[in-house]
TrEMBL record:
<dbReference type="InterPro" id="IPR045008">
    <property type="entry name" value="ACX4-like"/>
</dbReference>
<keyword id="KW-0560">Oxidoreductase</keyword>
<keyword id="KW-0274">FAD</keyword>
<protein>
    <submittedName>
        <fullName>Acyl-CoA dehydrogenase family protein</fullName>
    </submittedName>
</protein>
<dbReference type="InterPro" id="IPR006089">
    <property type="entry name" value="Acyl-CoA_DH_CS"/>
</dbReference>
<comment type="similarity">
    <text>Belongs to the acyl-CoA dehydrogenase family.</text>
</comment>
<feature type="domain" description="Acyl-CoA dehydrogenase/oxidase N-terminal">
    <location>
        <begin position="27"/>
        <end position="134"/>
    </location>
</feature>
<dbReference type="InterPro" id="IPR006091">
    <property type="entry name" value="Acyl-CoA_Oxase/DH_mid-dom"/>
</dbReference>
<keyword id="KW-0285">Flavoprotein</keyword>
<dbReference type="Pfam" id="PF00441">
    <property type="entry name" value="Acyl-CoA_dh_1"/>
</dbReference>
<dbReference type="InterPro" id="IPR037069">
    <property type="entry name" value="AcylCoA_DH/ox_N_sf"/>
</dbReference>
<feature type="domain" description="Acyl-CoA dehydrogenase/oxidase C-terminal">
    <location>
        <begin position="251"/>
        <end position="392"/>
    </location>
</feature>
<dbReference type="Pfam" id="PF02771">
    <property type="entry name" value="Acyl-CoA_dh_N"/>
</dbReference>
<feature type="domain" description="Acyl-CoA oxidase/dehydrogenase middle">
    <location>
        <begin position="140"/>
        <end position="233"/>
    </location>
</feature>
<dbReference type="InterPro" id="IPR009075">
    <property type="entry name" value="AcylCo_DH/oxidase_C"/>
</dbReference>
<dbReference type="InterPro" id="IPR046373">
    <property type="entry name" value="Acyl-CoA_Oxase/DH_mid-dom_sf"/>
</dbReference>
<dbReference type="InterPro" id="IPR013786">
    <property type="entry name" value="AcylCoA_DH/ox_N"/>
</dbReference>
Length: 399
């Protein structure tokens, strides 16, 4: 790996200005370096092409499995314990190259696997997690609905009706990443008997299940989001997540994934900064690189400051998660802050590139567009701010 410069005045400064990667132990650092090389060699060269075509990087699932970065200790034989910081940095590094790839990975490894890990019985975890760790079974997470986004806690309209040892699911889901091709769909539905949200694992091709890829997106085009329709889909009781009895259990999954999105947003900002910095030292106007002009340097400095602030907050979040002390409000604040700073950073990157900032050729345009999706999913800025506000005041502003 090339020598890091962090805050050195000699040469260009990379986005890890305070050297947070140095907090990893030796083995995790080596693994992160292998992931970086994979991203450089196999993801970066095709990111713009897949984005423009609206195609998923699903063809890389075998190569991802070979990296050995999926899952947590106990998910499958041989999976070692890894730190929360490593998992966060993994998401940051992926998004630094391609936020669509990071989201594709996160939907499977964080949302779908996280649901099984947090809410499944021991038998269910043993049945699904090993195959998901090896990418033999690819997962998706179906919570959001066409008419219900932020209001899922109280307004979920997809229903589950029990008939003996079978459940019947009816409803629709929207924005489901990987939903058109996932082998296992974690579907959240409201039990008509007790009005509580429960989780179900629905297999690809189940009778009554249809999935249409959502067209015309301007963000995360490399993620195939699906609109799902469930018309009398029958799911055996054995495939109901046995420890998902209310939305509080769903929220246990979301707490962790909000933290993951904060890292992804930081990576998106980092990728935009590095694209802008590279352009600034190469592009010449008035006989000199534009990176030598004060206004351009001010933009780069502000971007780097915001990225460093996000990294610092996310590092502390990882430490709290490691100790099992991360609260909903802390996860919400981190997601809210990092996605807001990301949005400002990608706008500055686009500004540095001028007219070329709207071309995929220089990468900044892709980060600029993808930021809009990261800003909204896993809870909008407004909804996360209300979670923080409730913690700060003891008063709920939710309807």
């Amino acid at each position: 790996m090339a020598e890091r410069r962090h805050g050195s005045e000699a040469g260009a400064v990379e986005g890890d200005f305070f050297g947070i990667v140095d907090l990893l132990d030796g083995e995790e650092r080596k693994l992160l370096d292998r992931v970086r090389e994979f991203l450089r060699a196999e993801v970066a060269p095709h990111a713009n092409e897949l984005w423009e075509a609206g195609r998923s990087p699903v063809s890389l699932r075998g190569r991802i499995a070979e990296l050995g970065i999926t899952g947590e200790e106990g998910d499958d034989a041989g999976v070692p314990a890894r730190s929360s910081l490593f998992r966060g940095l993994l998401g940051m590094e992926m998004a630094r190259v391609d936020p669509s790839f990071a989201t594709f990975f996160g939907v499977h490894a964080e949302l779908a696997m996280g649901s099984v890990r947090a809410c499944g019985s021991e038998e269910q975890k043993a049945r699904w997690l090993p195959a998901m760790t090896r990418w033999e079974k690819l997962g998706a997470f179906a919570l959001t609905e066409p008419l219900v986004g932020s209001g899922t806690a109280a307004g979920l309209t997809t229903t589950a009706r029990r008939e003996g040892d079978t459940w019947v699911l009816d409803g629709e889901k929207k924005w489901i990443g990987n939903g058109s091709f996932a082998d296992l769909l974690v579907v959240w539905a409201r039990d008509v008997a007790d009005d509580q949200v429960k989780g179900f694992v629905v297999e690809h091709g189940a009778a009554g299940l249809s999935a249409d890829v959502i067209p015309h997106k301007i963000a995360l085009r490399g993620v195939q989001n699906a609109h799902l329709a469930l018309d009398g889909v029958r799911v055996p009781e054995a495939d109901r997540l046995q420890h998902a009895e209310s939305f509080a259990d769903t929220n246990r999954v979301l707490r962790v994934t909000r933290a993951a999105v904060a890292w992804t947003a930081t990576g998106c900002a980092l990728g935009a900064y590095e694209a802008a910095r590279a352009y600034a030292v190469e592009r010449e106007q008035f006989g000199r690189p534009i990176g030598s002009f004060q206004l351009v340097q001010d933009n780069l400095a502000r971007m780097l400051a915001d990225i460093t602030a996000c990294q610092s907050l996310a590092v502390r979040l990882a430490a709290l998660e490691e100790k099992g002390e991360l609260s909903d409000a802390q996860a919400a604040l981190t997601k809210m802050f990092c996605t807001t700073r990301m949005r400002e950073t990608v706008a500055r990157a686009r500004e540095v590139l001028g007219g070329n900032g709207i071309l995929l050729d220089h990468d900044a345009a892709r980060f600029f567009a993808d930021a809009e999706a990261l800003y909204s999913y896993e809870g909008t800025r407004d909804m996360n701010s209300l979670i923080v506000g409730r913690a700060a005041t003891g008063l709920s502003a939710f309807v």
